[in-house]
Specification:
about 450 residues, alpha/beta, Aspartate Aminotransferase, domain 2, Aspartate Aminotransferase, domain 1, 2 domains, seven-stranded mixed sheet, four-stranded mixed sheet, 15 helices, about 40% helix, binds 4'-deoxy-4'-aminopyridoxal-5'-phosphate
């Protein structure tokens, strides 16, 4: 083992796959084996692995100005151009953008932005943030407290008490329904639970609710029809801001420009990372509406400097990578492409796997999807310790496909959005062989 502490890895684990190079939707390991990158790295390499235009934009910028900080209003052309570009794209009124380096730090920025804003307007008591069970928002101390996955909370004394995090139901009908509840009844019940919670806590103490329009790490949950409409009516009624974490769903992933557009969400705050630069250079963006910015200008004398910023906030090469990525999305109509190929992928997935004995639910939208692996198709019973997820992940790799087992026994798919229909066919054929083989494996081990 190299002296590396690998992220999100058991300390007893040994090194797994060593990747060497990539081309289009494919990656190659150091033994020359070729894989389809079915998860776009970690839901991020939207343009695939050999986009020379983005690489050239980065190197050109490095040659010109490899670094400039942006503290105290110091600036450079790429950061100003990128903020203008995002302002024109995002569904936030008169948007202003703070840049960081990762999805986690972008969410931390908003936690602090909310504190700063409510202090600035004289409402310091409005400080609680609602998150959802199974949500994933990163791993830094604040973002990690918003995340609800057990491994990200256990052993870190998270959530940090000072953050006043409230947790509400995950909007997953398949695993969350009670008895014979319909989807509509499930939705009404969990919205009702949230209203009770808001009233019990006092709405005047709640700043915002963070949602992933469609979740990723918790198993690709697409909430029921009508959920977001009712959620927003409830939050607006109680003066709670809507904060969309678009770190995975931003930029074409769902077949729309943003997850908010696909799911009918009108957000106040947004966070982006990953596909913002197709992951060729780390960059994140925390977006706020103009009215919030204006309110902070007016109150700045009382609360003082916004004392938050990273050395690499708006790194020139990162901004250049993002600007080129956004230009390519637009020029090549990649969001429309993702909508078309995504609809095809969803239809094929349902056709192939709906009746598979190991698959309880096929879900997803656009180019993000998951299969829920179950030990009993009728009851939806799951496997202990992610046994099926691990078996499927291993079988996929043996068949030249990289996917990710998430939330125990769900298999997530999230290929680069440049993927073609023929490549989708190839990916799903490999997935079918792998799921069949995992099914055999689990039977051999008497787990079925
Ligand atoms: N939010 C969401 C919705 C994510 O999926 C992720 C990462 N998977 C993050 C935040 C954190 O991003 P990062 O790993 O870049 O810190």
């Amino acid at each position: 083992m190299a002296p590396v502490i690998y992220p999100t890895t058991n300390f007893t684990a040994t090194e797994q796959l060593c990747l060497d190079r990539g081309e289009g939707i494919y990656v190659y390991d150091t033994d020359g084996n070729k894989y389809i990158e079915g998860l776009a790295g970690l839901w991020c390499t939207s343009l695939g692995y050999s986009n020379t235009e983005v690489m050239d934009a980065i190197t050109e910028q490095l040659h010109k100005l490899p670094f400039s900080h942006t503290f105290g209003g110091k600036t450079h052309a790429p950061i100003m151009q990128l903020a203008q570009k995002l302002k024109a794209m995002v569904p936030v009124e008169d948007a202003y953008v703070f840049f960081g380096n990762s999805g986690s730090d972008a969410n931390d920025t908003h936690v602090k932005m909310l504190r700063y804003y409510f202090n600035a307007i004289g409402k310091p008591e409005k400080r609680k943030i609602i998150t959802r069970e199974r949500g994933y928002h990163g791993v830094t101390v604040a973002a990690g407290s918003l995340t609800s996955l057990p491994a990200n909370l256990a052993h870190f004394d998270a959530p940090l008490e000072a953050l006043h995090i409230l947790r509400s139901d995950a909007p997953h009908y398949y695993t969350g329904r009670q008895g014979n509840e319909t989807e509509a009844q499930f939705t009404d019940r969990i919205i009702g639970n949230l209203e009770q919670q808001i009233l019990a806590e006092d709405p005047d103490t709640i700043a915002a609710m963070i949602v992933e329009p469609v979740t990723g790490a918790s198993g690709v949950i697409v909430p029921p029809e009508g959920y977001y409409e009712k959620l927003q009516v409830l939050l607006r009624k109680h003066g709670i801001l809507v904060w969309a974490d678009e770190v995975i769903t931003g930029f074409g992933r769902t077949g729309a420009d943003f997850g908010c557009t696909a799911m009918g969400i009108k957000p106040d705050l947004m966070t982006f990372a990953k596909q913002l630069s197709s992951a060729y250079f780390p960059i994140s963006a925390s977006v706020i509406p103009g009215w919030m910015y204006e309110a902070m200008i007016n109150q700045t004398n009382e609360v003082g400097v916004f004392g938050h910023g990273y050395t690499y906030s708006g790194h020139p090469a990162a901004c250049a990578a993002a600007l080129k990525t956004l230009e390519i999305y637009e020029r090549d109509n990649l969001f429309e492409h993702a909508a078309e190929v995504g609809a095809y992928m969803q239809a094929q997935l349902r056709g192939i796997f709906t009746d598979h004995p190991l698959v309880g639910e096929v879900r997803g939208i656009g180019l993000i999807a998951a299969l829920e692996l179950v030990s009993n198709k009728t009851t939806g019973a799951s496997f202990d310790k992610g046994a099926a997820g691990a078996a499927a992940q291993k079988a996929c790799e043996a068949n030249g496909l990289i996917i990710r087992a998430v939330a125990g026994n769900a298999v997530a798919l999230c290929p680069p959005i440049i993927i073609t229909k023929d490549e989708v066919d190839d990916m799903l054929a490999r997935l079918k062989t792998a799921i069949d083989s995992a099914y055999g494996d689990l039977k051999d081990k008497d787990l079925l």
